[in-house]
């Protein structure tokens, strides 16, 4: 392909709205252009990369025994109502009323649609197992689209669904998809970490995310240095804290509880400073509503409630903080002074609170706190569990070593859904004895365009993108310094044609521009190998073979040896 025959609108300056490297470089290299917040057009370079990712995914899905389908983007909201997810998606769901008065949603995902198909087409165990997949655009009305294609309103996804008659079959399909994901991400050149994850709005009991470590990632993962525990922060649990380390009883033991005046002191930081103590001695009392009833949740002052975990502990789909009026009514005190002593509602405590001594709580009275409070002595707890997010330095629950917390970009997620959707939508099969049973399901998703952005975040320098050959829009860039010189131009065109004939994807920069501009653009678009026809060619007939990745000295070879050298570098047959 000649540069002048395609559309590669590179930019010299960073776009003002781009906050992260992948967003900045995808725009500057001419891969994408923003149409509106959260929606991007893919130009030729971006489309070529996107197609390479989807081809890898298709090959590995087919190899794993999955069969491709293509489902509609439009969905009747009745299906989401049946599964119970209409409220779960809430304002993220893009919906409209058609001319017939029916409410239609743009598909945020396709569990309900695929289950509806299976309900109507599968009736016997003889038709199972089955794995179906598609590559389809998903739509979510993100409140704050940002980071380019990392958080957008349109997301190109591969989603697969397995249908089984028993747990053994579900485990087999789950492992097949897990292994296929590892092969996909390996082939895409990603540094990724499989982590245990919460199932969230998808439902089910078991799931793993595939995370690419990156400071711009909006997910957090907790990892043990032993390598045996890698978990999404929503699911992570710390090792229990022993009383002798978490307590503050000191040599005098537990002290009598007493009330202290704390005028206009409401936040953890303010109370800690006023009472000259650390936030780890304070206990936050948070009033939640769960199943229509209030519950007091206790965590240490330096910890935060993990609401995902809290909801599971309470057996609810979700929980939320009570409003200010309810809190005042329950505690008898303004916001900032709630405490567990004397509360007449259910109280549950994080494990780190249960081992405290001489702690500090609100007194359920304005401008007042209680000191030397003892859980169990001064208030009763109905349940102790892990209710908080882990923090740096917490112990691993499996080996006790200190956990580290880091950011990551989620590029894939696999779930064991069980019967959540098959029961809700009536997808059943007749087992060998003639009994009707709900189909067991698994769900397996990959963010196709997220793979591209995640790779760029991990593989770029000050000059631009550094593509691996597997995903690069082209494998080789032929760069003649002076296309106005007929001999140079003809040689470059011949080399381009020979490379293409040898099966090497090649871009010829035939623009009549200064060498500096062409070299900057070459670095920016990041094609793995560059063949330069410059002064050395004009003087000695040799071309310069350069690696975008760096690390190797440029190689000078005769023009007729360049194709052989490139095939060696790309591991192509001679």
Task: Name a few traits of the molecule.
28% helix; globular; 3 domains; 9-stranded mixed β-sheet; alpha+beta; BirA Bifunctional Protein, domain 2; single chain; 5-stranded mixed β-sheet; 574 residues
Compute the number of helices. 17
Distance between the termini: 23 Å
Give the proportion of residues in helices. Answer: 25-40%
- Largest sheet report: 9 strands, mixed
Low-confidence stretches: 244-249
| Rg of Cα set | 30 Å
So what's the overall shape? globular
Number of separate strands? 31
Tally of structural domains: 3
CATH superfamily annotation of the largest domain: Bira Bifunctional Protein, Domain 2
Return the CATH architecture of the largest domain: 2-Layer Sandwich
| CATH class call of the largest domain | Alpha Beta
Strand fraction:
25-35%
CATH topology of the largest domain: BirA Bifunctional Protein, domain 2
Structural class: alpha+beta
Mean pLDDT: 94
Verbal overview:
This protein has 574 residues and is α+β, with helices and mostly antiparallel strands. It folds into three domains: 15-213 and 409-456, BirA Bifunctional Protein, domain 2; 243-385, YbaK/aminoacyl-tRNA synthetase-associated domain (YbaK protein), CATH 3.90.960; 474-569, Anticodon-binding domain (Rossmann fold, 3-Layer(aba) Sandwich), CATH 3.40.50. Helix content is 28%, strand content 28%. The protein is built from 17 helices and 31 strands. Strands 3, 7, 8, 9, 10, 11, 12, 21 and 24 form a nine-stranded mixed β-sheet that branches. It has a five-stranded mixed β-sheet with strand order 16-14-15-17-20. Strands 28-27-29-30-31 form a five-stranded mixed β-sheet, with helices on both faces. Helix 1 (21-28) packs across helix 13, helix 2 runs antiparallel to helix 6 and helix 2 crosses helix 13. It is globular. The model is unreliable at 244-249 (pLDDT under 50).
